[in-house]
Amino acid sequence: MSKKKLYEGKAKTVYTTDNPDELLVYYKDDATAGNGAKKGTIVGKGVLNNKISAFFFDMLAKQGIEHHYINMPSDREMIVKKLDIIPLEVVLRNVAAGSLAKRLGLKEGTKMSTPILEYYYKCDELNDPMVNKFHIKAMNWATEDELAQIEKAGLKINSIMTDYLKTKNIDLIDFKLEFGRYHGKVLLGDEISPDNCRFWDSTTHEKLDKDRFRRDLGHVEDAYKEILHRLTGKQV
Ligand code: C5P
Fold it and tell me: Which residues are in the SAICAR synthetase/ADE2 N-terminal domain (predicted)?
């Protein structure tokens, strides 16, 4: 396979493949927080996030969610459909944490009475500012119809993942999704892993996600391994 580096992000590198409709995503061990202000390595993270994401994509597909994941040629690589990425970060929240807790002065762990869906404009230079549907339509980042599809899929994904994770004694606090266009459809893209989700143990409320890195809580790799183990029963 002839592959050319297309884009190197903070946690993943994207390559072309022989098929113009497909890309290869390589999951790195690099970790950043605060939009690159803090940098580090989480040994084995690439393998864990690749496998955890593949697990969630497969699970969501069984419930009718269309996504970009095709297959996993190696432990750190994923073949995906080449999406025309919509420049939005779509955040779903069930419990106050992180920036929501800060912005609204809420105690972390406060349960929301209904899920919250927020949009952020994907732009590192601007630190991904929060935007609403009016900004998105005025800037032509997505159409009304695309936003309707994104909201429907986002809320459904939240409900499927929350219910599933509950059976593994994990609370889904919040998470971030990205979507893109593919042959006239809007598909789920990016990854679903402890890098972009907050997972808390339902009994102890222990954090099993990237907040362990962001907040220097230690045992970062162990938390990622624990998520893969609870999902698949496998160690790595
Ligand atoms: O920081 P904040 O509380 O807004 O994050 C909400 C959720 O979105 C968290 O699960 C976080 O991991 C994820 N997120 C992300 N990428 C960003 C911002 C947030 O994956 N750039």
Answer: 5-230
Residue nearest to ligand 1 atom 20, measured at CA? 196
Q: Where are the alpha helices (DSSP H) in the chain?
A: 45-62, 98-104, 133-138, 144-166, 211-214, 220-232
Distances (CA, A) of 9 to 33, 35, 118, 189: 13, 11, 23, 15
Model pLDDT, residue 1: 64
Quote the pLDDT of residue 3. 85
* Residue closest by Cα to atom 3 of ligand 1: 98
Q: How far is 96 from 84, CA to CA, in rounded Å?
A: 31
- Maximum separation of any 2 CA atoms in the chain, in Å: 52
Consecutive 10-residue averages of pLDDT for the chain (236 residues): 89 98 98 94 98 98 98 98 98 98 98 98 97 98 98 98 98 98 98 98 98 98 98 90
**Residue 235 pLDDT:** 82
pTM for the full predicted model = 0.97
Establish if 59 belongs to a structural domain.
Answer: yes
Do 133 and 33 lie in one domain? The reply is no
Residue after which a domain boundary falls, among 21, 56, 81: 81
- Tell me, yes or no, whether 234 lies in a domain: no
Contacts of 82 (CB under 8 A, 6+ apart): 20, 21, 22, 23, 182
Q: Which residues line ligand 1 (CB under 6 A)?
A: 89, 91, 97-100, 128, 174-176, 196-198, 210
Residue labelled with tokens 């884009």: 7
